[in-house]
Amino acid sequence: xxxxxxxxxxxxxxxxxxxxxxxxxxxxxxxxxxxxxxxxxxxxxxxxxxxxxxxxxxxxxxxxxxxxxxxxxxxxxxxxxxxxxxxxxxxxxxxxxxxxxxxxxxxxxxxxxxxxxxxxxxxxxxxxxxxxxxxxxxxxxx
Length: 142
Hints:
Elements: E1 25-28, H1 34-39, H2 42-53, E2 57-61, H3 65-71, E3 78-79, E4 93-94, E5 99-102, E6 105-108, H4 114-125, H5 128-137
Parallel strand pairs: 1-2, 2-6, 3-4
Antiparallel strand pairs: 5-6
Helix pairs in contact: 4-5
């Protein structure tokens, strides 16, 4: 697929070929029309519902948190998203923060918050020490 900025990405496997049973986290990238395509993918929505029911981690950045809003899983939770997408958060308590973690759901605002988002996910999957080691190695925030 070629994105809106002309960057082509080729998958090494198709969605239907993947086994998600042992995965701990699903991350949704943002952007348009990608977010709309994610909302319209029934197989993805089923997988997200399954992860959510199992308490597995879900994460989304930019406009993609609206996929979770569309599904109704942000109701009463804290979340963030790309500016202007707040109405799509489906009853979430919007916070204008770089990264918001509420239970098993992590949301972030956009490309400018991507490193903070990634470091938060690393800390959640591993620990604070691992996230700090990576933060230092990429000279982020120092």
